[in-house]
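forwarding from the other thread:

> can someone predict this with adenosine monophosphate?

sure thing
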Amino acid sequence: MKDCLFCKIIKKELPSKIVYEDDNFFAFNDINPVAPIHILIIPKKHIPSVNSLTASDKELIGELFLVAQKIARAEKATETGYRLTFNVGENAGQTVEHLHLHLLGGKKLLWS
Ligand code: AMP
Ligand code: ZN
């Protein structure tokens, strides 16, 4: 997707602090972290949001959670705990229209 910020980050046309990359996924530090660990995990396939998922994405999304677990383990967050969040649409404050899973951890997280 030509004008998508995260597609540009995947293609390394824009800089990011890369945490993980494989054939299907890319993960990088959030530029405006709200926790000591704040990583965005994204599929390389441009999918705008959870609303756009179809049955053909089932395997990819399953794999996304395994990647999240792998990153959480590498960040030493599996024992202390962490949060995985998708913001979807306006009420949730989604600002980038490329599916991204927030991985938050490194402190006790509040729930509001
Ligand atoms: P959301 O509000 O769920 O759409 O999350 C988008 C996230 O992307 C926010 O937490 C932003 O801080 C983050 N973000 C925006 N631009 C960049 C960037 N260039 N590099 C890293 N993170 C970014
Ligand atoms: Zn994109």
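Residues 5-105 form a domain with the HIT family, subunit A fold (CATH 3.30.428.10). thats all i got for now
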